[in-house]
Amino acid sequence: MSTAIADSALDQLFNLARTHHHWQARRVSDAMLRRLYAIASQGPTSANGCPGRFVFLSTPEAKARLEPHLAPGNVAQTLQAPVTVVVAADSEFYEALPTLYPHSDARSWFAGNDALIEETMLRNSSLQGAYLMLAARALGLDCGPMSGFDKAGVDAEFFADGRWRSNFLINLGYGDASRLHPRLPRPAFDEACRIL
């Protein structure tokens, strides 16, 4: 674990990886989605709470349920993508802490503390969504993360009981690299970082 990964792996995960909006007509299998989650689920979360939940929309019927809640600019790319993931968070994630974090009474840290529950849900489901994207890239898939959607509408459509709550969306599949725009700049180290 103390050996750096190859530059080619860094290229696949970060340096050459891109956000895709156009997709090849190649299916992503259920087995691939299961493998993807198995890898992504290994990433760290606060007190191993794992509040992230993932709904993989892979059929036209499932996409039709999502479509009315998408921002107009996200409709075409989402309908074309083989899979769209609703990255959500379980508002009762702490109920599993006796199993997921058994060496301490971590459940008591959260029970009744709505502010801590909300903060932990958002931070850690966002982390878990990012782990899912990195795992997807590691497995040869491309990603198109999106926040342009009606959260209340998605929650009513897919999570009517209110326990799970949507965070963001990720289109998954095999991107059409011929349709990519030039890579956009990033802030330089001295603009974004401080060493103290």
Automatic annotation (TrEMBL):
Its EC number is 1.-.-.-. One of its GO terms (molecular function) is oxidoreductase activity. It holds the Pfam family Nitroreductase. It is an enzyme of class 1 (oxidoreductase). The keyword NAD applies. InterPro entries: Nitroreductase, Nitroreductase-like, Nitroreductase_HadB/RutE, RutE-like. Its cofactor is FMN. Keywords: Flavoprotein, FMN, NAD, NADP, Oxidoreductase. Residues 18-174 form the Nitroreductase domain. Belongs to the nitroreductase family. HadB/RutE subfamily. This is Putative NADH dehydrogenase/NAD(P)H nitroreductase E5K04_08225.
